[in-house]
Amino acid sequence: MTYRHGAGSLREILQGCTGLGFQILGFTTGAPEHGGSGVMDRVLNAGTAQTSGNLVEVELEIEGRGSRHVLLDALSGRPAVQAASFGGENE
């Protein structure tokens, strides 16, 4: 997931996950790769993504019984979120 830094987005993202029935097992944050445009950003928002230096990419490890599609819709609908997608399953 890629979001704008400084908007309180990480807190909202984590609360959104837990509010929809998911448990946060872990997460990592960092600067998006390739000059400010993360992988998810490029795939989901080709040509429309913000490329300024204030973007952060977070990878969440979550589990739960909630709907992944509902979660994805809820998180991607947040104003500061630039891109959101699910990667691989837990091993």
Commentary on this structure:
- The chain is α+β, with helices and mostly antiparallel strands and 91 residues long.
- It has one domain: Alpha-Beta Plaits.
- Helix content is 33%, strand content 27%.
- The chain has four helices and four strands.
- The longest helix has 11 residues.
Protein topology:
Elements: E1 2-4, H1 9-19, E2 22-30, H2 33-36, H3 39-44, E3 55-64, H4 68-76, E4 81-83
Antiparallel strand pairs: 1-3, 1-4, 2-3
Q: Describe the largest sheet.
A: 4 strands, antiparallel
The average pLDDT is 82
**Net shape:** globular
Question: Which structural class is indicated by helix and strand composition?
Answer: alpha+beta
CATH third-level topology? Alpha-Beta Plaits
Under the CATH scheme, which architecture would be assigned? 2-Layer Sandwich
Assembly level: single chain
Strand percentage = 25-35%
Estimated helix fraction? 25-40%
- Helix count, per DSSP? 4
Radius of gyration: 12 Å
Strand adjacency order, main sheet: 2-3-1-4
Distance between the termini: 20 Å
Please write the CATH class name.
Answer: Alpha Beta
What is the string of helix and strand elements? EHEHHEHE
Quick synopsis:
The protein has 91 residues and is an alpha+beta fold.
Jot down its keywords.
single chain; alpha+beta; four-stranded antiparallel sheet; 27% strand
